[in-house]
Design a protein that fits this description.
- The protein is α+β, with helices and mostly antiparallel strands.
- It has a domain at 1-63: Multidrug-efflux Transporter Regulator, Chain: A, Domain 2, CATH 1.10.1660.10.
- Helices cover 45% and strands 14% of the residues.
- The chain has helices at 8-15, 19-27, 49-63, 68-81, 122-135, 142-148, and strands spanning 6-7, 46-47, 90-94, 97-102, 105-108, 117-118.
- Strands 3-4-5-6 form a four-stranded antiparallel β-sheet, with helices on one face. A two-stranded antiparallel sheet has the order 1-2.
- A hairpin with a 2-residue loop joins strand 4 and strand 5.
- The radius of gyration is 22 Å and the shape is elongated.
- It starts with 5 loop residues before the first strand and ends with a helix.
- The model is unreliable at 114-120 and 143-149 (pLDDT under 50).
């Protein structure tokens, strides 16, 4: 049994974009339909579920104020450097920057991976501190730590 396909009209409606946008994105290779591409007059594009996810990510980036050319740059980077499904990537939007969260690292996809920032997982620090306090036989409460200081 084959994968369910969505027509261009249906895909545009599901994602919340106009058919003209969808057509433009396909013609300019931002997202081409992976099931059936247009092959001339009267042919119909068929988009997969994964295509819909990518389209939704693009729409979200545009809605967040990221320019279309920046979205193209981000997707070029993601397609070249993300081994898993693009839709499962964790993106961080900061102003006009798009960052990819890869484990404990933020990668600036707009600058092609340069300017890597480290992410400090504060939750992990809290767990480590709580474990140390338990090992010392100290209570793990905000008031106990405030009094000790």
């Amino acid at each position: 049994m084959g994968e369910v396909g969505y027509s261009g009209t249906k895909a545009a409606s599901i994602v919340g974009i106009s058919y003209r946008q969808l057509d433009y994105w396909a013609r300019t290779n931002l997202v081409r339909p992976s099931l059936t591409d247009a092959s001339g007059s009267g042919s119909r594009r068929q988009y997969s579920y994964r295509d819909l996810l990518e389209l939704r990510v693009i729409k979200s980036l545009l809605d967040a104020g990221i320019k279309l050319e920046s979205v193209r740059t981000a997707f070029e980077y993601l397609r070249q450097h993300v081994d898993t499904d693009i839709a499962s990537a964790h993106l961080v939007i900061s102003g006009s920057d798009v960052l990819l969260c890869d484990g404990d690292t933020l990668i600036d996809v707009m600058r092609r991976g340069q300017g890597v920032l480290n992410v400090l997982a504060i939750g992990g620090l809290k767990i480590d501190l709580d474990q140390q306090l338990v090992q010392l036989g100290k209570p793990v409460t905000p008031t106990a730590t405030a009094e000790a200081v």
